[in-house]
Amino acid sequence: MATSKPVSWSINDVIDWFKKKEIIINESFQRHSVWSLQAKTLLIDSILNELPLPKIFIRTKIDPKLQKSVKEIVDGQQRIRTIVEFANNDLTLNNKSENYHGMKYTDLSEDSQQIFLGYTLTIEQLLNATDDDVIDIFARLNSYTVALNAAEKRHAKYQTELKFFVRRMSVKYRWFIEKHGIFTIKQRFRMQDDEFFADLTRLVVDGIQDGGAEKITKFYQVTSDSDFNEQKQRMAEDTIDQIINSLDTNLGAFLKGPLGKHYQVYCLSAALLYIQNKIPRINSLPERNNMAQNDQIVNRLSQLERDLDEEQNTDFVKASSATTQRITTRLVRIRSFIEALGE
């Protein structure tokens, strides 16, 4: 009968066992995949910064006659492969590691090498488990867990420059999200802030588009690292910087109310970019113009707030209560914001 026992192993021990072939990788339980350099770098960077990693599952078969055990990795093979690759000096960390960019294991200071080798991996050891036991155990685990939402699935699946850029924007502007209450902690825990910044990045790169999880996932699918190169990332980050700072400085008072919903913040951002001629022209939107005087902007946005609070029968209110990610309703709200912000 299979049993489970949690144990802690140091990376130094795992490397030693791997060299002696006392740990083997069983690819029957996990699809064969090759991690990108970004994903590998992030893993090693987490270890060097002593941050937690997910649990690794090992099946340990004990032979009482030979008094020997064989350890099979059934979940976590890419983590172990990456750790061994770095220890063997075969992996150079890229710019996803802020403090160790361009380094191999031998380039680390002695203190950092000790941190790496002494890092403790959390292992769930499955003792004398058959293949059927392993399948049953993972079926049970999956029945207890909450299904991943679209943002979490994208974050798990894609190891691209776009994915890491979006995560960086979420971290960089955490202060903005928290200050104005754009998302709750629970929503941020489910990565809804990442989804917002993915949509904002798509706005900056491609202009006003139809929204929703499926469209954002498609954006991840078609955006290669060569498409979203360093120059394009700098442009996108500079533009997002300007948007966030403008919203916070000039319109912050309105973000505490109904105009602070994430789908309204997207449309406010689109209106600002449109007025500034930073996204393509759309025929159904007004002609571009200069920004209005501050008192005019305050009066107009205040009226939109009142319309929402009083549930007035206006196009803006209707578009704010219907499917908020569709381009048809987005354009209605963006038009209203352009008319409020422009001369």
Structure write-up:
- This protein has 343 residues and is α/β, with parallel strands linked by helices.
- It folds into 2 domains: 3-145, no CATH class; 151-341, no CATH class.
- 54% of the residues lie in helices and 10% in strands.
- It has helices at 11-19, 37-48, 77-87, 110-118, 131-144, 150-157, 161-172, 174-180, 185-189, 192-206, 213-222, 230-251, 262-275, 294-309, 315-321, 327-341, and strands at 3-10, 23-25, 56-63, 68-75, 120-127.
- Strands 1-5-3-4-2 form a 5-stranded mixed β-sheet, with helices on one face.
Task: Itemize the secondary structure elements and their pairings.
Layout: E1 3-10, H1 11-19, E2 23-25, H2 37-48, E3 56-63, E4 68-75, H3 77-87, H4 110-118, E5 120-127, H5 131-144, H6 150-157, H7 161-172, H8 174-180, H9 185-189, H10 192-206, H11 213-222, H12 230-251, H13 262-275, H14 294-309, H15 315-321, H16 327-341
Parallel strand pairs: 2-4, 3-5
Antiparallel strand pairs: 1-5, 3-4
Helix pairs in contact: 1-3, 7-10, 10-12, 10-13, 13-16, 14-16, 15-16
Walk across the major sheet and give the strand order: 1-5-3-4-2
Number of helices, where a helix is a run of at least 4 consecutive DSSP H or I residues: 16
Q: What structural class do the secondary elements suggest?
A: alpha/beta
Order of helices and strands: EHEHEEHHEHHHHHHHHHHHH
Classify the beta-strand content into a percent band.
Answer: 5-15%
Q: How would you sum up the global shape?
A: elongated
Largest sheet: 5 strands, mixed
Helix content: 40-55%
Contiguous runs where pLDDT drops below 50 for at least 5 residues: none
What is the terminal-to-terminal distance? 76 Å
Number of domains: 2
